[in-house]
């Protein structure tokens, strides 16, 4: 039985995976402790909401090797690195879902500080990387600057750390180069700003497109399974099945 143990900064822990069925959020550390000792935990995660946008930056790691990745370092690096240190995670790389400032603003700094490679997003987000210093100045992100991904990612690629392998899906619509990371053994997806609990990513920003976004969700995410738990770029965890039933923008009952 594979599960992922997710800790959300602020004291809540969620155990997600096939047996959990739903991204139940448990208030006590006790449950998480039990789960960690009774099932095969193949990936662990701490979610650190960062920046005034409360963006869900994730530290993911392989419990066997303790090697990990930071997904979407938008800012507040001291908090992110403190979470990694607390769990004794050795950060190997940076992964990016897309290049908006709240997700990628501290990528250059983190990459330089720890000498880390940068994987993702899809190359269609290059225009956002080029503009990231301007966006940073506009939104008060100190020190945001462009960077060069070590490796662009595309749908069908994989990205890994330790013994963990994540599958990559290309999900344009919110941004043209947005990608999603899927951990198949625990059925957990890190979806950035493609999908939220009860909502979807905004499409009024440059090169956003609503119909494209809904098509990405339905063609790239739903086939992964209703029992997939997803970590959105902002807000609470949910499952694809829950959103297919009730999301006002992309449920099975909404025509686009
Ligand atoms: Zn975004
Ligand atoms: Zn965002």
Topology readout:
Blueprint: E1 2-8, E2 12-16, E3 25-26, H1 29-38, E4 40-50, E5 55-61, E6 67-71, H2 77-86, E7 90-95, H3 101-104, H4 107-114, E8 118-119, H5 126-130, H6 132-139, E9 158-161, E10 164-170, E11 179-183, E12 188-192, E13 195-196, E14 199-200, H7 210-221, E15 229-232, E16 238-239, H8 240-246
Parallel strand pairs: 1-4, 6-7, 7-8, 12-15
Antiparallel strand pairs: 1-2, 2-3, 4-5, 5-6, 9-10, 10-11, 11-12, 13-14, 15-16
The structure holds zinc ion (ZN) (2 copies).
One zinc ion is lined by residues 98, 100, 103, 174, 193.
Summary, kept brief:
By secondary structure, the protein is α+β, with helices and mostly antiparallel strands.
What does it look like?
The chain has 256 residues and is of the alpha+beta class. The protein has one domain: Ribonuclease Z/Hydroxyacylglutathione hydrolase-like (Metallo-beta-lactamase, Chain A), CATH 3.60.15. It is 25% helix and 30% strand. The chain is built from 8 helices and 16 strands. Strands 3-2-1-4-5-6-7-8 form an 8-stranded mixed β-sheet, with helices on one face. A 6-stranded mixed β-sheet has the order 9-10-11-12-15-16. Strand 5 and strand 6 form a beta hairpin. About 9% of the residues have low confidence. Bound molecules: zinc ion (ZN) (2 copies). One zinc ion binds next to loops.
């Amino acid at each position: 039985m594979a599960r992922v143990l997710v800790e959300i900064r602020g004291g809540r822990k969620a155990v997600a995976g096939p047996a959990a069925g739903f991204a139940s959020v448990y208030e006590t550390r006790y449950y998480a402790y039990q789960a960690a000792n009774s099932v095969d935990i193949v990936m662990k995660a701490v979610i650190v909401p960062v920046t005034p946008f409360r963006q869900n930056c994730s530290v993911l790691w392989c419990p066997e090797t303790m090697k990990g990745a930071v997904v979407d370092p938008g800012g507040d690096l001291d908090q992110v690195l403190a979470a990694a240190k607390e769990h004794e995670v050795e950060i190997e790389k940076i992964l990016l879902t897309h290049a908006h400032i709240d997700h990628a603003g501290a990528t250059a700094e983190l990459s330089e500080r720890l000498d880390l490679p940068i994987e993702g997003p899809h190359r269609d987000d290059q225009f956002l990387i080029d503009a990231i210093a301007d966006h940073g100045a506009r939104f008060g992100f100190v020190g945001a600057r462009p960077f060069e991904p070590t490796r662009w990612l595309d749908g069908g690629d994989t990205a890994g750390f330790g013994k963990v392998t994540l599958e990559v899906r290309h999900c344009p619509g919110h941004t043209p180069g947005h990608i999603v990371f899927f951990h198949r053994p625990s059925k957990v997806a890190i979806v950035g700003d493609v999908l939220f609990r009860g909502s979807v990513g905004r499409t009024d920003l440059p090169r956003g497109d609503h119909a494209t976004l809904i098509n990405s969700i339905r063609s790239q995410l739903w086939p992964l399974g209703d029992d997939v738990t997803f970590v959105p770029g902002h807000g609470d965890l949910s499952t694809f099945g829950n959103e297919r039933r009730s999301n006002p923008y992309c449920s099975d009952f909404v025509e686009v």
